Fold Carbohydrate esterase family 4 protein.
Amino acid sequence: AQYPAKDELPDTNHPLVKKWIAEIDWSKVPKLPLAKADIPNCPDCPAGKKGVPKNACWWTCDGCVAPDDIEVCPREKAWGLTYDDGPSEDTPRLLKKLHQANVTSTFFVVGSRVLEYPETLIQEVKEGHHIGLHTWSHAGMTSLTNEQIVAEIKWAEKIVFDVTGLKTKYWRPPYGDVDNRVREIVRQMGYKTVIWTKEWDSNDWQIPDKTITNKEVFRNFKWALSTVPKLKGGVITLEHDLYTQTVNVA
């Protein structure tokens, strides 16, 4: 298949995308305004959050979690270990660590990076890890048009299926950026939205920019452990396998 370019928004005029768009019942999709963003970055919240529509349930700006969003493990004291943004050249090193520790995880993969490292995705599956989608280009989804949202999900879905033969059921929005418009579109495509447990973002993604240190990541994780007794269920943690530095602390 002729896939879209790496880390770029797919063309919504592509024949396959038009077919996918036609499969959505648009009458059920809330008419919410597009968020303002320097695409592909995470959208900015309106000043004072006053500009957030009441029916948006916009996780980025008001922390709203929809009833069918997954943010905790259903089993008490279970640990849902997840990695975003890969695969990358460092992912095999992480897979070796996980294998040695006899631990499996969920990888939310970026479609265009699967295009670059298909063998790594195959290895993840062979070693018993779960695979979810993290869109095609890693753009903030609430800033995209309805058609772009469809293209982002379906191209990622297609390449994962083409490489592994697996039909994915779960997705995680880049930056956690999701509202009810995005939710309904991906819901109609058969996906459940997975966020992460509050306070359990490792913030490892800040290490490459040197805005946080390895020690701070470990300290944050240790503090988060203290919140476990208060949780109804287990935790879903957020880490990343895109950079050498994030894999170093995984």
Notes: The mean pLDDT is 92.
